[in-house]
Specification:
Layout: E1 2-5, E2 14-17, E3 23-24, H1 29-40, E4 43-44, E5 47-53, E6 59-64, E7 68-69, H2 73-82, E8 84-86, E9 94-96, E10 106-108
Parallel strand pairs: 5-8
Antiparallel strand pairs: 1-2, 2-3, 4-7, 5-6, 6-10, 9-10
Length: 114
Amino acid sequence: MSKFICIICPKGCHLEVDDNLKVTGNSCKRGETYGISEATNPVRMVTSTVKIKSDFITRLPVRTDQPIPKNRIFDVMAEINKIEVVAPVKIKDVLIANVLGLGSNIIATRTVEK
C-alpha cells in the first residue's frame, strides 16, 4: 500500500494505492490516474537555471519540456549545471536536446537579448 497526496487539483486528496493498483481516497478520475502513475512510474518537470553570458543577468531560467522519471532528476541537474549559454536567447530555445536520452529537452523560459 502506497500513500500519496494528489497534486492535480487544489483539493489535495489523500490517495492510497494497493498492490493491485486500486486507488482509494480520490474524489475524481484524475486522482485515480495520478495515483496509478505515482505508484508505477513517477515523473516530474524540472526547473532550474543555467549560467548565461549577458549584459543584464547571470542566470537564465530553464525547464524540461516533458516530465522525466523522478529517479533521474539529479542526473538531469548534473547535465544542466554543465552548460553556459551566450545571449541572445529566446524563450523556448532548446539548450539541451533529448537530455540523457529521456525524450525531454531543456528549454529557456526567458528571452534575453544581450
